[in-house]
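Before going further, learn to read the protein records used in this course. A complete example follows; check for yourself that the lines match position by position.
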Amino acid sequence: MKELRLQVNFIFYVIVMLVSLALLSAAKLFLEMQLSLLAAAQFTIAITAIVMAFIHFMLALSGQNKVTICNQGFSYFNLFGTRKFVPSEEIHKLSTRSILGLKVIQIHLIDTKITLLAFKITKAQKRSLAQLGYLA
C-alpha cells in the first residue's frame, strides 16, 4: 500500500499568528480608549487563537496530527482532534490552489468538500497522487 503523508504548511501558521497579533494590538488600542469589554473579548479571542495554533503546530510537527492519503482512502484529524477516515470510493477529486500565497488542498467528496489549510502537497507527492488516480 502506497501511503503519502502531507507536509506542514508553515505559511498558514504564520498568517494565524499575524492575525492574532493584530487582534492583540487592537485590543491594546481599545483598552486605551476605555472600551474595556471589546478589548477583553479581542484579547480572549487572540490568546485562544495563539494557544490553539501553537498546540496544533506542535502536534503537526511531532506527527501526532497528520494527514495521510493512500490507495484505500484519506485519513485526517478534524478541528476537534478526532481521527476521520474517508474511503477512496467517496473521493471524487483532489485539487490544490493558492489563495494569497496560502496553499489550500480541497478534497471533493460525493456530497461535500474538505478543505485543508495546515498541510500541503509537494511536487513529488502530486506525481504519486496522479498515479493513484486522485489528480487528473
Remarks:
- The mean pLDDT is 80.
- The beta strands are 3-5, 7-8, 68-70, 73-77, 83-87, 91-99, 102-109, 113-116, 119-120.
